[in-house]
Amino acid sequence: MADLDHVNAYDSMQALGTIIQPELAFDGGGADYPAWRSRFWDAYRQCLGPWPTPVDPELTVASEEDRGDHTRYKIYYNSSPGVTVPAWLLVPKGIKPGEKRPGILAAHGHGNGKDDIVGVDNGDPAKADLVRRLNYDYATQAVQHGYVTIAPDWLPFGERRPPVEWSRVGRDPCNVVGMAWQYYGYTLLGQNIWDGMRAVDILAARPDVDSERLGVLGLSYGGTMTTHLAINDPRLKAAVISGYLSTVKGDALTMRGKGNFCGAQYVPSLLRIGDIPDMIGLIAPKPLLIEAGRADDCFVIDDVRVAYERLERIYAAAGVSDRLAYDEHDGQHEWHGVAAWEWLGRWL
């Protein structure tokens, strides 16, 4: 007789979670850590799909604005065939001739793209309120802490958002653009990682930037991008992931998480090999700070704590427990920043 408990899509998905077990989830064994990392890395890279083809960035400076303590440039660069990325570049004032500053890639989350994290609201009270509530202008905070900072728009946000009439009102552009990208054999997440690594190219090539002192940070989808950029770009030496550490299986796919994922951030087949803590564990041995809000209703703190314990075991197995830190605060889904700047200053 057919199992009538598995008719609804949600119920079938929960059943799959008991049937399909991750093949490469970290089991806590330190002795086999290098072998685990190698196997998981290979499987993870396959999940992301192929990288796009590199092209000449043909960097274009579209505007320059004096912001008092820093100069803000609007730039555009080519990332791959047919793909151009807009970004803000923030440069602190007072850099002496020959001086090299550390650099930061600031990754925005869902919302208005790169404008949010530099505090550009164009007089829109709703945008200004969002930045204020989430303490969201961390790209500006970074340049005020002395970092040369780059903040690209990810697909499909900011200037890279598709026409509403194409993605259709009421649909999530992340899902529509994500499926469109896969028609060409690429994942949307893979494209965004590639675009971010090309932003690191621009940052590292600047004469006022120390290419050995580069970091990455971000909230929410910015935390997603921080994760993948820290994993994939060896030039990024330290990271702060805010409002992202969690599990897919125990949270996002359950009623607790309520489908807290989208076409821009999912890693195809991830649950066949592990989960988010295993993936973030690939950042080791790089220094990593995790921010988590106890009142966060996107990434529930009980799940975050479970995920962090798993991440701790990976860093311990790698022999670098001192390079992992945790900032749990009373806030909601927001950038905290209290421990972040001291942490980055320590490692960069």
Describe the secondary structure blueprint for this structure:
Elements: H1 9-19, H2 33-48, E1 60-66, E2 70-80, E3 83-92, E4 101-107, H3 114-117, H4 125-134, H5 138-144, E5 148-152, H6 164-167, H7 173-183, H8 188-205, E6 209-219, H9 221-232, E7 236-242, H10 248-252, H11 270-273, H12 276-281, E8 288-293, H13 301-317, E9 324-329, H14 340-347
Parallel strand pairs: 4-5, 4-6, 6-7, 7-8, 8-9
Antiparallel strand pairs: 1-2, 2-3, 3-5
Brief overview:
By secondary structure, the protein is of the alpha/beta class.
Radius of gyration: 20 Å
- The number of distinct β-strands equals 9
* CATH fourth-tier homologous superfamily: Alpha/Beta hydrolase fold, catalytic domain
Total domain modules: 1
CATH third-tier fold name? Rossmann fold
Oligomer: single chain
Question: What fraction of the residues are assigned to beta strands by DSSP?
Answer: 15-25%
Structural class: alpha/beta
What's the tally of helices? 14
What strand line-up does the widest sheet have?
1-2-3-5-4-6-7-8-9
Mean pLDDT across every amino acid position: 94
Uncertain parts: none
CATH class: Alpha Beta
Reported CATH architecture: 3-Layer(aba) Sandwich
> Helicity range of the residues?
25-40%
